[in-house]
Amino acid sequence: MKKSAIDESARKLLLKMEVSGAVFVSVCAVVLHFLYDISGNAVWAAVFSAVNESTWEHMKIFTLPYVLWSCVELCCVRVPFRRFLTSKVIGLYFLLLSIPVFYYTYTFLIGKDIHVINIGCGFVFTVIAFVISYKLISYAMCVERYYKLSVVLLIIYYLMIGYFSFLPPKLELFRDPLTGGYGLTD
How far apart are CA 36 and CA 51, in angstroms? Predict the structure, then answer.
């Protein structure tokens, strides 16, 4: 058995929080998928929720709940901040990168997209992201060395959300497969 990098009570609480977080993020992602429409296309909702069916928008709906839950965890579980933040950013990036890689790979291979697979992969990748962060927080000895890089990557991603929510580039990642449009303007 690996030696834990945090004390046993913190590790046990963290495990419970990570399991709860996977459920929280999954449920919130479903709500955020529809929030823009429910809000009457409110501009404020565009930053957090999906404005179309593009892959980018499906990546975006996992971000806010993941970060919110991470803040709750940080308040509840006593672990070193740099270890925690770095581990959470790595988990978040795994989640965000897995969605398009999996989606474009399987749709290329079978020639179509299947909604139940899209939904299922979002849930599966959410669980894996929390497993990754749990393992890194609990057992990784040198994860803190990537703290500065993690902060930079988190800032870059939030700048991308802010910018691309309103001015998406004309790339496949941002194209709505149902309408062919991009973001709010098309």
Answer: 6
Q: 69-79, pLDDT tens digit by residue?
A: 999 999 999 89
Is the per-residue pLDDT at 65 higher than 90?
yes
147-166 residues labelled b (16+ CB within 10 A) or e (exposed): beebeebbeebeeebeebbe
Please give the backbone phi and psi of residue 40, each rounded to the nearest 5 degrees, phi first.
75, 30
**In degrees to the nearest 10, what's the CA dihedral of 101, 167, 151, 98?**
-10
Distance CA 46, CA 168 (A): 12
Q: What pTM does this model have?
A: 0.91
Closest listed residue to residue 146, CA positions, set 87, 70, 78: 87
For 79-102, b/e burial (b = at least 16 CB within 10 A) is beebbbbbbbbbbbbbbbebbbeb
Angle at 161 between CA 21 and CA 27, to 5 degrees: 25
Q: Which residues pair with 25 in a beta bridge?
A: none
Give alpha helix (H) positions in 39-173.
43-46, 55-76, 81-110, 115-139, 147-164
Q: What is the rounded CA–CA span in Å between residue 183 and residue 51?
A: 6
